[in-house]
Predict the 3D structure of the following.
Amino acid sequence: MSKAPSLREKLSILADAAKYDASCASSGGTRRDSRDGKGIGSSTGNGICHSYTPDGRCVSLLKILLTNFCVYDCAYCINRKSSNVRRARFTEQEVVDLTLAFYRRNYIEGLFLSSGIIQSADYTMERLVRVARLLREGHQFRGYIHLKTIPEASPALIEEAGRLADRLSINLELPTEDGLRRFAPEKDGATIESAMGRMSGAITAAAAEPRGPRFAPAGQSTQVIVGADGSDDATILGRSAGLYGTHRLKRVYYSAFSPIPESSQALPSRAPPLAREHRLYQADWLMRYYGFGSGEILAGAADGMLDLAIDPKLAWALRHRERFPVDVNHAEREMLLRIPGLGVRSVDRLIAARRHRSLRLADLARLAGSERRLRPFVVTADHRPTALLDRADLRSIVAPPRQLALFA
Ligand code: SF4
């Protein structure tokens, strides 16, 4: 029998096992503040695992699994029952002690805790909830807590998890029912959806009653694995749009599939290009902040895949030249947001500026940082792109080959 791992070894095994989970940015939470002297620590400082929030803030979390033992056998997962990896399991008290120790040293701003499924969904969920309860109620921990929840767990346990955690998440993992059937047969899309639905109802109800009991104030998120089951980007984005619309998810995280040892023959032997993950995040951003419908982003793209060489908004503009040029001195905000090279903040500044004067190309270049990308797509007081939009080589004008090569 092999020797039981030390605490240090457990940390190394269970932090490494958690690295495949991308769904842990701590954005959007009501930050607990311990400056009132009633709690410990503060939620600023450096840490051991960095995540980036949508506004670009970098936060640090202790990101670990309670255990990498699992009774499920999801083909794409390194921790699946049949995987030949070294296993470890923290006690709940060990997770609490580690979190407090790192937090007091200001290494972290919070905890992201997930787990393989041991014995049953309820047995595992009870242990995750116990960690959060010990931290919050036993130690008045004011840091950020993100708990991964198990869709099959009883609603009472999810309820308690929501009361204690800032954010909850359930991983969808694969975007289609067919993918789940093939690669995660113990999981059920309908159970995942209904758990997300209950969570969404509780989050909305708590947000409407600020004086009532709290419930996951930073919302819920999920992770979708990209490149494991053959789903194209149009399918993935359609699924994300459905989740944002139906369950008001705060974020969908995209995680490129990484091939694992002794995996199923049905899984790809190579990881998808990392640029694909990056383009999906950009497209996701377009759906959430730029008013694009999921079907629109890839409309006209023959293979249902995002162009890896250029960003999805530029790709959309090149396919829909009939929508341009846009007169920046008169167009609605909705259309200004579609101009390549202009972000949300630039558009808002542009709208504020045009109240006082007619905008010229140089004004736009200042807002966008460059005029190359937007020049063919805009009309300003001193510029009308005439034939530019009809040129066959427009793509190489707005995205020179040197830049395209970065993504090749
Ligand atoms: S349930 Fe989670 S930890 Fe277990 S095999 Fe499936 S993905 Fe991996």
User: Anything to note?
Assistant: The longest strand covers residues 58-65. The first helix runs from residue 7 to 18. The CA atoms of residues 283 and 312 lie 6 Å apart. The chain has two domains: 7-290, 312-405.
